[in-house]
Amino acid sequence: MTKRDVVGRYKGSVLGLAWSFFNPLFMLAIYTFVFSEIFKSRWGGGDESKTQFAVVLFVGMIVLGLFGEVLNRAPGLIVTNDNYVKKVVFPLEILPVVSMGTALFHSLISLGVLLAAFGLFNGYMPWTAVFIPLVFLPLVIFTLGLSWMLASLGVFLRDVGQTIGIITNLMMFLSPVFYPVNAVPEWFRPFIMANPLTYIIEQAREVLIWGHPPGWLGLGVYTLVAASVAWAGYAWFQKTRKGFADVL
């Protein structure tokens, strides 16, 4: 189903699956120009190259893209697949998993582009990049839990889809995607750190860009919290699914 979802998204287009490669490059070029040339954003010193800024920015975009794609699709998963609810016995709980698989496919392509660009511009790749699956795992679990919950709520409250779109756009600017955490005023820094994307973005940069091992303790705590959210989201989905057919 994930393969069909990926292929179906680009079916009929001239470039086909190549769009999954060009889309992140196009957005990277725009954001890099705006924030490095116009706003003069920097992570390091004044001699930092634009290519270095671009790859650091790209890491945040990959994390945000995975989270945003899954959550934005979640409220409509059951509504747009009502035939599975009404006509056949189907494990509806796998629909958010299929959506996650599609998002992971796009993230994997973006990671490949990132590592290729980093190796091309710097002449090496940090060995700590092997830890990136472990960095992403807690976010995947956490996002999947939210997706189960939102997929259920989207059946009963159609406004959820519009609300999630606003929230994910807001989180883009409340996450350290375009700026380092230490550039945020101290009084506002706790709000940025409370964002569930912040820690994953920072840890992804540690292993992909700066060549440092991840913070195992922080990832362990995050995974426990993510597992609790996933369990709660799955339990909520199973408890409310009996009412899907009546509403649809």
In short:
The protein is mostly helical. It is built from eleven helices and no strands.
State the helical fraction: over 70%
Oligomer: single chain
Radius of gyration: 19 Å
Q: Tell me the span between the first and last alpha carbons.
A: 22 Å
Number of helices: 11
State the major sheet.
none
Order of helices and strands: HHHHHHHHHHH
Quick one: overall form? globular
Q: Which class best fits the helix and strand makeup?
A: mainly alpha
Low-confidence parts? none
Whole-number mean pLDDT: 88
Q: Beta fraction of the residues?
A: under 5%
Strand count: 0
If you had to describe this structure to a student in words, what would you say it looks like?
The protein is 71% helix and 0% strand. The chain has 248 residues and is mainly α. The longest helix has 29 residues, at 94-122. The mean pLDDT is 88.
What labels describe this entry?
11 helices, 248 residues, 71% helix, mainly alpha
List the helices and strands and how they pair.
Blueprint: H1 2-10, H2 19-38, H3 50-73, H4 82-86, H5 94-122, H6 132-156, H7 160-173, H8 189-194, H9 196-210, H10 216-240, H11 244-247
Helix pairs in contact: 1-5, 2-3, 2-5, 3-5, 3-6, 3-7, 3-9, 6-9, 6-10
